[in-house]
Amino acid sequence: MTAPVPGKSDGRIGPRANLRHIGALVRRNALQIRYQPFAMFDALAMPIVFALLFTYVFGGAMTGGNRSEYVNYFIPGLMAMGGLNIAMSIGSGVNDDFNKGVMDRFRTLPIARSSVLIAKLVVECGRMLVSTLVLLIMGFIMGFELKTGPLELLAAVALAVLFGSSLTWIFMLLGMSLPTPQAVSGMGFLVMMPLQFGSSIFAPTATMPDWLRSFTEYNPLSRLADAARALTSGDGAVAEPVTVTLSWTVAITVLVAPLAVRKFRNKTT
């Protein structure tokens, strides 16, 4: 029997079969986490570390000693940052899988090439949900007040995970384009640091210089943080930041996902 040719099976896979393949790969990736619990370390530890660090080290200075005020400002912003941190880790994982030959074995199977990446995306979205849940629990312990309702909170969480899913495509593409996991991590930090600190996540943008404030206005993390704050506090406009965030999510996914799937299909080393 002739072995399937990598990259040639996509057109022969029906939707139902594709869903079965995605489900099987999701289960495989989830079992990996079960048998390697340290893979959840970033999702569990980072929200706790960031919440404690920024609230008790910087929160008092930023709000004149009123840390409870900063908690209500910072926790929704940290929801926006969580997806970026989780997405960044997948790039190194994809690169390592290629270097170990795992992805080459997948590409010899008669499955849609997109199913491998979509399965990884689904698992990463699950990790984002867990990370956000840990963050919210920590936030409530530290005094975070939900001034709207559970539906608005769920909307904020869903928006953060949706945007994080679009970033996952970027880092999977980086993982397949760069030579080593270290290069992926280095490039990830170069992308992550300006987006995180040049935003409204940690501090209001009103005191920033004009050139930086102009950048923050177009930074999608700022719009996501503003949307999360509006949904959880009831203050400020909701429709505009939510619409902008969803627009960024759709645009990134539509532009990058096909590139990532094509790179996965054609990658030779």
TrEMBL record:
UniProt cross-references to Pfam families, sorted A to Z: ABC2_membrane
Record's keyword annotation contains NAD: no
Domain of life: Bacteria
Cellular localisation: Cell membrane; Membrane
Keyword terms, alphabetized: Antibiotic resistance, Cell membrane, Membrane, Transmembrane, Transmembrane helix, Transport
PROSITE patterns per the UniProt record, alphabetical: ABC_TM2
Residue ranges that the Swiss-Prot or TrEMBL entry lists as coiled coil: none
Stored InterPro entries: ABC2_TM, ABC2_TM_bact-type, ABC_2_transport, Nod_factor_ABC_transporter
Domain (ABC transmembrane type-2) ranges: 38-267
Spans traversing the lipid bilayer: 38-58, 70-94, 115-141, 153-174, 186-206, 242-261
Membrane-protein topology: Multi-pass membrane protein
Family according to the record: Belongs to the ABC-2 integral membrane protein family.
Protein name, as recorded: Transport permease protein
Origin species: Streptomyces niphimycinicus
